[in-house]
TrEMBL record:
Domain (Pectate lyase) ranges: 98-307
Presence of keyword Secreted: yes
Signal peptide per UniProt: 1-20
Species: Phialocephala subalpina
Pfam families listed in its UniProt record: Pectate_lyase_4 (PF00544)
Location, primary (coarse class): secreted
Function: Pectinolytic enzymes consist of four classes of enzymes: pectin lyase, polygalacturonase, pectin methylesterase and rhamnogalacturonase. Among pectinolytic enzymes, pectin lyase is the most important in depolymerization of pectin, since it cleaves internal glycosidic bonds of highly methylated pectins.
Protein name per UniProt: pectin lyase
A GO term for molecular function: pectate lyase activity
Reactions listed under catalytic activity: Eliminative cleavage of (1->4)-alpha-D-galacturonan methyl ester to give oligosaccharides with 4-deoxy-6-O-methyl-alpha-D-galact-4-enuronosyl groups at their non-reducing ends
């Protein structure tokens, strides 16, 4: 190869790599029409202040993270009375103490035998950044890390894509230490290839007011922790879906080393849980409250002690090929069987909510596979 040809080829490869900076793919399922920052020019925030400004303003933006943004210490620390809740039966050996958020320590919720202790926590972790509308927040390779701060998509902010970033270290030693991603009053959110680890409270919340159309895909919820509310190095507060008529597609996610609330559902959310992989869950995965609707297909439950804690709502667990044929009229495909290994039972055959799926954009389903562990999370696209 002549040198000029070689240089040209190298330049072309470089240019195509540059051109590739942007959101990869589109959402499947309910959040399909999310466009985020659209065709805005990708820009790299220089520090946490610029990242915060760009996320919170009302300009459509494609924000690219190619390094770590560390918020720890940026708002100082707080020392005040918190508590050792009844659940912490392993003090000094990996339990989780609590911040007295909304009087949780003193209003009875921390259980009998709660004791007051001093807690010191990082202030940046307890309140997330409030995003404006029309944002794409994306990471390069495995480099895009937000340490010590969560994200809130609330109060009408909508049309947001978060892809290929890692949110970590929000006061993991404390219950109420912070939530990684909170949705509360939004529409059209796509969370994709995000990793969440070492969080004090919930890894993902769709809470309070309506979240409308949401897709969470190919993301990793890693519950490995040295501060476990269940004293076993597994994080308890994983996914909490409440809200009002929320439509959540949850596809291709890897939830592992957790012990509870994965997900806990209240309100009347309709959840399509498809092709996810639950692994090494020492407590429960689903806890379905009254009014909530769950269609679960093509998932793997491996070493999940309690796939279903309680079902007070409606659950279709894709129980048999015969029953699964009922999906075709509403989803455009026959539902796919879930797979179980060394796990408890998970069963429901309620089809009464299928009419809610009519006219909606529905994610496809493939056969249940543990390969999700290799495709979910940061650095996999
Ligand atoms: C977001 O984008 C939509 C579509 O371009 C536009 O109508 C809306 O005003 C934008 N919102 C904000 C807060 O800029
Ligand atoms: C499901 O259908 C019921 C009855 O039509 C309706 O009241 C409810 O809002 C629907 N929920 C969702 C999440 O679409």
């Amino acid at each position: 190869m002549r040198t000029s040809t070689f240089v040209f080829a190298a330049l072309a490869a470089f240019a195509s790599r540059c051109a590739a900076v942007g959101v990869v793919g589109t959402a499947e399922g309910f959040g399909k029409s999310t466009t985020g920052g659209g065709s805005a020019t990708p820009a790299y925030p220089k520090d946490i202040a610029e990242l915060t400004t760009w996320l919170t303003d009302d300009v459509a933006r494609v924000i690219v993270l190619n390094k770590e943004y560390n918020f720890i210490g940026s708002q100082g620390t707080v020392t005040e009375n918190g508590c050792r809740p009844a659940s912490n039966k392993c003090p000094g050996a990996g339990g989780q103490d609590a911040i007295n958020h909304a009087d949780w320590c003193t209003n009875g919720n921390a259980g009998a035998g709660v004791t007051t202790i001093k807690v010191t926590y990082d202030k940046a972790g307890v309140n997330g950044i409030n995003l404006g509308s029309n944002k794409s927040l994306i990471g390069i390779g495995s480099a895009g890390v937000i340490r010590g701060k969560g994200l809130r998509i609330a109060n009408g902010a909508k049309n947001i894509i978060i892809q290929n970033i890692h949110i970590t270290e929000l006061n993991p030693q404390y219950i109420w230490g912070g939530d990684a991603i909170t949705l509360a009053g939004t529409d059209l959110v796509w969370i994709d290839h995000v990793k969440v680890s070492l969080i004090g409270r919930q890894m993902l919340v769709t809470g309070g007011s309506a979240s409308n159309r949401v897709t969470v895909s190919n993301s990793e919820f890693d519950g490995s922790t040295s501060w476990s509310a269940t004293c076993d190095n597994h994080h308890y507060w994983t996914l909490y879906f409440t809200g009002s008529n929320d439509l959540v597609t949850f596809k291709g996610n890897y939830i592992h080393h957790t012990s509870g609330r994965g997900p806990k559902m209240t309100g009347n959310t309709l959840l399509h849980a498809v092709n996810n992989y639950w692994y090494a869950v020492s407590g429960h995965a689903f806890d379905i409250g009254s009014g909530s609707m769950v269609l679960a297909e093509g998932n793997v439950f491996q070493n999940v002690v309690t796939p279903l804690l309680e079902n007070l709502g409606k659950l279709f667990s894709s129980p048999s090929a015969t029953a699964n044929a009922a999906c075709t009229a509403y989803l455009g495909h026959s539902c796919v069987l879930n797979a179980f290994g060394s796990s408890g039972s998970f069963s429901g055959s309620d089809t009464s909510f299928f009419s809610n799926l009519s006219g909606k954009t529905i994610a496809t389903a493939v056969a249940a596979s543990a390969n999700v562990a290799k495709t979910a999370g940061i650095g996999k696209i």
